[in-house]
Structures are given as structure tokens and as C-alpha cells.
Amino acid sequence: MEARLLSTVLSLLAVLLAGWALEDLDPRKIEGFWREVGVASDKDLALRTPRRAEGVFLTVNGSSLTVKVVFNNSKSCETETTVGWRSGAAENFAFPGHREIHVLDTDYQHYAILRMSLLWRGKDFHVLKYFTRSLEGEDEQGFRKFRELTADTGLYLVAQHGTCAELLKEVSLGPQPAAPSPTQSLGP
Q: pTM of this prediction?
């Protein structure tokens, strides 16, 4: 286990040296819908749970971050909302229950790679997660970075398209105006 922890730390250092770490996170740009595409952990507990996150909707208000998560729990959609606050560096957020989110990398438009940490049964537990803005696909460049970052982590889960994420996106963004057809006029 110590060897895996050392390997994970070395992988994170390699990412930092490669320039993938965020210099200055712009929290406003991470707002909105994100679909969970990949999960990596050296603990199979994170991958065995029947309650799988499918998507999140992030809202920033000052130094606080509201995270609305939609889970697929045995084919039933459940939501959970929690509020955290900026903790130290701009890319770190702390949440009640000894939980933290660290934004490792994002291009804001297509993908985000996050490290989720929590204290569970007296032990630190870390999961790396890969998100995209799209309901389809995984953004090749971002997913390649995620796979390189997690190459020594051991266990992976690549999410399937889920209806819970689709519902979260629809509900959180509200009704979207229909695009005019080529024959419709935009003006009087």
C-alpha cells in the first residue's frame, strides 16, 4: 500500500512538473454542468458502490462552492447538494465531513480532472475523477491526461451515459430556447 501511495504522489508531482497543475483557477469558469466520465482509485470500494455519481452542477458564490450531485442508485436518480468553501489555494475546496475537492486540471470548456479526498473510518481516502461538459464522449485530450495521471493508480471505472446526468443538466440549466430553423426570421 505504501508503494502505491508513493507511486500516486510521484504521479502527481510529475503532473505538476509537466505543467498540468492549475496556476490560477477561475472558479466562475468551472460553474455549470459536468458529467462524470472516469473514476480512478487504489481502493475498490470507490468502484463497487451501487450509488454512482453521474453528474454535478457547480455554482460559485464568493468563496463558496455549491455542488449538486446526481447519483444513479440501482436505476433510481437521487440528488445531493453540499456547500464548501475555498481552502487555501484557489483550486482547493473544503466541505463538511472532512471532505475536499482539488481541481488538478481543466480547460473550463471540455474537461476537468479532480481529486476528491475524505476521511473515512479514520483513514484518508482519495479518488481521482474525470468530468466533461458533454453528455456524449469524453474529450480525447483531457481523457488522455486523466489516463496518464492515473496510470499507476490501479483501478478504473469509465462511466456509461446515464439518464440521471441528462436530467440534472436539463433541470439545472432550465429550458433552453429552441434554435430558429433556417426558414424562421429572427426579426420583425
A: 0.74
